[in-house]
Amino acid sequence: MILEGTGLRGVDHIGLTVPDLDEAIAFFGEAFGATVLFRHGAYSPRPEVNERNFARARDVEVAGIAMIRILDMNIELLQYRTSDPPRTWPSTSSTGGHHVAFYVEQLEEAVDRMREAGIEVLGEPLPLSGPEGGPGNRFVYARAPWGLFIELVSYPGGKAHDHASV
Q1: What is the CATH number of domain 11-84?
Q2: In this predicted model, what pLDDT tens digit does every residue of 76-101 receive, in sequence order?
């Protein structure tokens, strides 16, 4: 392992870029009970720092950052100002595309509640198959208002790979 001996202990947070920080905080709060750990305001990194340290355009400004917590997961929400904002979000198959998955015990109820709240749920729950399969194992994707894909997953008896002998 490359990081062996470095004291690797776990995941600290996941960072997500959002177009509107307040909207994202409200969405995660209403949908998943997120709490805000901290916020900090706008700042402008030096152009060479933007380019070298963050692989972004030289003129990008940080409009604001918030660290939220959902259950035991920290999510850093970042809003930027840029002269060239993206016009579309990545698809689930795009390089750099991503999703955040949440385990729920009552998948149908979760889907119903998301739809009632106006959250776009993509299709109906599908069975998990292969190494994730098992009786009652299912998942469904949804999309946050700004395009982030969210997966709801349920596997009440565990997944096939949990029970496979090595």
Answers
A1: 3.10.180.10
A2: 999 999 887 777 777 888 877 889 99
92-166 shares the fold of 11-84:
yes
Q: Domain boundaries in the chain?
A: 11-84, 92-166
Q: In this predicted model, what pLDDT tens digit does every residue of 56-77 receive, in sequence order?
A: 888 999 999 999 999 999 999 9
* Chain length of the chain: 166
Measured distance CA(87)–CA(5) in Å, rounded: 43
Homologous superfamily in CATH for domain 92-166: 2,3-Dihydroxybiphenyl 1,2-Dioxygenase, domain 1 (3.10.180.10)
* Alpha carbon distance 41, 36 (integer Å): 14
Cβ pair 50, 61 in contact under 8 A: no
Q: Work out the number of other CB atoms within 10 angstroms of the CB of residue 74.
A: 15
Largest Cα–Cα distance in the chain? Answer: 54
